[in-house]
Write a structure and sequence with these properties.
five-stranded parallel β-sheet; four-stranded parallel β-sheet; single chain; 14% strand; 305 residues; 9 strands; alpha/beta; 2 domains
């Protein structure tokens, strides 16, 4: 496992191994405290972050390694220096790179030119580390992956939605995306995920009917209506577009009584979900956020072993 740019880079066996390893790291952190001694992680941020930055930083340092943070705005990245040259130079200094970028093609170019592993901390198209962490959370809360249904409501044309579709396809989880038709997931991603789902027997559904999407769901998932690349000027228009897909006390009546609610954060109460949902008894969002730390430790260990 050299680099992880999307969940298309992994198979079910590799994902299960990461989930198992992350679970062991969570239970026995002291066993891994010196596992990456002498290793250095470079974190390159073109998009802002809270959970990604903290969890990778703490994760590497807790295993004995070192970290450094590069803000693209204060570096020559893509202005005075090409992505390829940045990757080649950085590889001479560090052991592993985590990059959080806008364009996925930039990340691909970085990985192609780096001589060290590259981890996708998020691009406009994919967010694999988030969904791997989510799969750890689902395993903890539901005890299994088979015979589950995950419903995502909101922006289907979204890195989290894309990665959820792929991750669920690998693990045999039925996934139903409820979204406006003009903001459906990229068809090429859905098609590739459907090929994986034929093996796992998962079902992938995209619908404009929120009630149909959430029917009998074991997991209900929401994400921000305002991704980092969306201009603030579009906020009011997008709110009106997504109101019918808000996760609230009425819509969740269609889910199973023991459903869990997930949001990868940041979350805005009164927008993608109401306060009684994210702060209620079904919500696992803070356990979900914690699991970023444990899963990303597992990813770094695997990439560097």
């Amino acid at each position: 496992m050299k680099s992880i740019l999307s969940l298309f880079d992994l198979d079910k066996t590799e994902i299960l191994h990461l989930v198992e390893l992350a679970g062991d790291i969570k239970k026995n952190p002291q066993v891994y405290s010196g596992a990456l001694t002498g290793k250095t992680l470079m974190m390159l941020f073109e998009k802002p972050s809270l959970r990604t930055k903290i969890s990778f930083d703490v994760g590497m340092q807790s295993m004995g390694g070192n970290t450094l943070v590069i803000d693209s705005q204060s570096s020559p990245f893509k202005s005075k220096e090409t992505v390829a040259d940045t990757a080649k130079v950085s590889s001479r200094y560090v052991d592993i790179i985590m990059a959080r970028l806008f364009e996925h093609n930039d990340l691909v170019e970085m990985a192609q030119n780096a001589s060290v592993p590259v981890i996708n901390g998020l691009t406009n198209d994919f967010h694999p580390v988030q969904i791997l962490s989510d799969l750890l959370t689902i395993k903890e809360k539901k005890g299994r992956f088979d015979k589950l249904k995950l419903c995502f409501l909101g922006d289907g044309f979204n890195n989290v939605t894309h990665s959820l579709i792929i991750g669920c396809a690998h693990m045999g989880i039925d996934v139903s995306v409820g979204c406006p038709s003009e903001l459906s997931p990229k068809q090429e991603i859905v098609d590739k995920a459907n090929a994986i789902a034929q093996v796992s027997e998962a079902k992938i559904t995209v619908t404009q009917d929120a009630k149909e999407a959430i029917k009998d769901a074991d997991i209900v998932y929401a994400d921000s209506w305002m991704s980092y690349h969306i201009p603030e000027s579009e906020k009011e228009k997008r709110v009106q577009k997504f109101l019918g897909f808000q996760v609230n006390s009425e819509i969740v009546k269609g889910a199973k009584p023991d459903f869990i609610f997930m949001n990868c954060l940041p979350a805005m109460r009164g927008f993608e979900q109401t306060a009684e949902i994210i702060d209620g008894r079904h919500s696992v969002v803070f356990d979900q956020a914690e699991n970023r730390l444990h899963m990303q430790k597992a990813i770094m260990l695997e990439c560097l072993k």
